[in-house]
């Protein structure tokens, strides 16, 4: 089958690889109809992880079931399904508690959490390909309604970024009528902004420096804060009568940088602590990693950050973090899409065939104007 293969930093190509196939009785084989490029792919694309050369990328997948293993009894051939980016078994201790992002069976011994086409997440083959093998298929596949193909650009957000944005807001502790500041107006930050509005936020503030992304935030009623035009903390204070936002969300991750491009992995965390009020809450879904050999400073290379713990403690804030447990949210978010209460596809800038994926990575990685979210359509 054709698939997008990682050959090294800034080098991906469409190549012929072994066909994905049913290997276990509980496997489901999916013909991939839509698969997104994610900001998480960019950490790998830029060579900032230990993603192995020759591996296939892609963890935001939707497709049609074309074959099922002998042990599958819910999912059927012909179903259109959303596949969570987390590979999870459904019956380990963490899955039983809804923590499918820390499944104990989907990674190597001693590590929790699996994902398709991801560094250090169990070696599963990605879905930026013609076909995808989905293990534990009955547990993993979320069946989509009749309008699956028509609203594919909406439903494709269910495998990762819509639940991830929702999770960031959930972890922040937002209640209806409260304000929230979101750092990062990439796809994840924009989904956090959408989620906060659906959850009844009084005021949603989104910080970034890319005008096209900030415009998308404004389109759903958020306040755009351009940090290239002034200190974002001061701007948040102006919008909150000097008190700070009730809640905050980190949607950037360890490659956070200033508008000039100087990297500081603690930048957004510290700005959040300063932007959020005393006793407020923060949800961190931007990725941070235990080792980052490509980081510009020695501390960050060891996965450590100059986190302003003193200010965080002094303000009595709370923070939640980690990979999002997609299955906790994807069913009700699917139903919001089906009922036309939300249209997460408003961020999609491109639908492209798999053959154009290498070019799309280049543009999206450069955060070029107008490249806000790329959906690849292999089938
Ligand atoms: P992206 O790279 O497209 O967007 C990140 C945005 O952050 C960019 O628009 C960039 O301009 C902005 N930014 C950089 N430094 C900033 C700063 N100091 N202040 C404000 N904004 C800043 O990526 P994305 O797809 O939106 O993903 C965002 C993060 O979420 C990534 O780290 C990704 O790996 C992570 N992620 C986590 C999960 C999870 O389950 N926890 C799931 C999906 C993605
Ligand atoms: Zn993703």
Structural overview:
Helices cover 26% and strands 22% of the residues. The protein has 379 residues and is of the alpha/beta class. The chain folds into two domains: 2-160 and 325-376, Medium-chain alcohol dehydrogenases, catalytic domain (Quinone Oxidoreductase, Chain A, domain 1); 161-321, Rossmann fold. It starts with a strand and ends with a strand. It contains 13 helices and 17 strands. Nicotinamide-adenine-dinucleotide (NAD) is lined by residues 38-40, 42-43, 160-161, 164, 183-189, 207-210, 213, 227, 251-253, 256-257, 267-268, 285-287, 323-324, 367.
Q: Would you tell me the overall average pLDDT? A: 98
The number of distinct β-strands equals: 17
Q: What is the helix/strand order?
A: EEEHEEEHEEHEHHEHEHEHEHEHHEHEHE
Q: Biggest sheet, in brief?
A: 7 strands, mixed
Kindly provide the radius of gyration, computed on alpha-carbon positions and rounded to a whole number of angstroms: 20 Å
Residues in helix, %: 25-40%
Cα(first) to Cα(last) distance is 11 Å
Shape: globular
Bound molecules: nicotinamide-adenine-dinucleotide, zinc ion
Q: What structural category characterises the helix and strand content?
A: alpha/beta
CATH fold type of the largest domain: Quinone Oxidoreductase, Chain A, domain 1
Low-confidence stretches: none
> Which range does the strand content fall in?
15-25%
Q: CATH H-level name of the largest domain... which superfamily?
A: Medium-chain alcohol dehydrogenases, catalytic domain
What is the CATH C level class of the largest domain, in words? Alpha Beta
Number of domains: 2
Annotation field: number of helices: 13
CATH architecture of the largest domain, please? Answer: Alpha-Beta Complex
Keywords: Metal-binding, NAD, Oxidoreductase, Zinc
Organism: Nesterenkonia lacusekhoensis
Domain Alcohol dehydrogenase-like N-terminal: 24-145
Pfam families: ADH_N (PF08240), ADH_zinc_N (PF00107)
